Amino acid sequence: MRIAVIGAAKGKAARYLQELAAQQGICLEQVPLKKGGVYDVVLAGPMAAKAEVPDCCTYALVAYGKDAARLSHCLQAQTVITYGTEKSTLSLSSTEGGGMVSQQREIMDITGSAQPIGEIRLPEGLPSQWVCGAAGALLACGWKGM
């Protein structure tokens, strides 16, 4: 699957995603975001700059709640998964031992399967502001929580 990650600490986030996805046999190819590109998932870190997002297409845009509307104007996305605010699909409920992410709504992954509402624990390895976004990107790719 092709995934583009933008925002501060994007390299660390991309390696983290690839490692967790590989544990379930999902191959994530981290690619740069380019004008006219087609991606399975675009993960925008908190406060990602609109200037970083060229016109492109994706199945899922995973964006910080307050950034989602602004970024979705730059690209075509079949689904938008928001994180980090009270009204988002994903929010951080604990940071102990990595991060516990609360999923408030069902997420449809790229294969058309529903990812059910619940809590997902992610291992340590990312700054807390990225944990929810990483969970959204993984779920959109069909990853099953730990």
Major β-sheet profile:
5 strands, parallel
Strand content: 25-35%
Rg on CA atoms, Å? 13 Å
In terms of per-residue confidence, which ranges show pLDDT below 50 for 5 or more consecutive residues? Answer: none
Kindly, what is the distance between the CA atoms of the first and last residues, rounded to a whole number of angstroms? 20 Å
Instruction: Write down the overall mean pLDDT.
Output: 91
Quaternary organization? single chain
Order of helices and strands: EHEEEHEEEEEEH
**Largest sheet: spatial strand order:** 2-1-3-4-5
Shape designation:
globular
**Helix content range:** 10-25%
Structural class: alpha/beta
Number of strands: 10
The number of helices is 3
Summarize the structure.
By secondary structure, the protein is α/β, with parallel strands linked by helices. 21% of the residues lie in helices and 35% in strands.
Describe the model.
Helices cover 21% and strands 35% of the residues. The chain contains 3 helices and 10 strands; from the N terminus they run βαβββαββββββα. It has helices at residues 10-22, 68-72, 128-140; strands at 2-6, 29-30, 38-44, 56-64, 75-83, 90-94, 99-103, 107-108, 114-115, 118-122. Strands 2-1-3-4-5 form a 5-stranded parallel beta sheet. A 3-stranded antiparallel beta sheet has the order 6-7-10, with helices on one face. A two-stranded antiparallel sheet has the order 8-9.
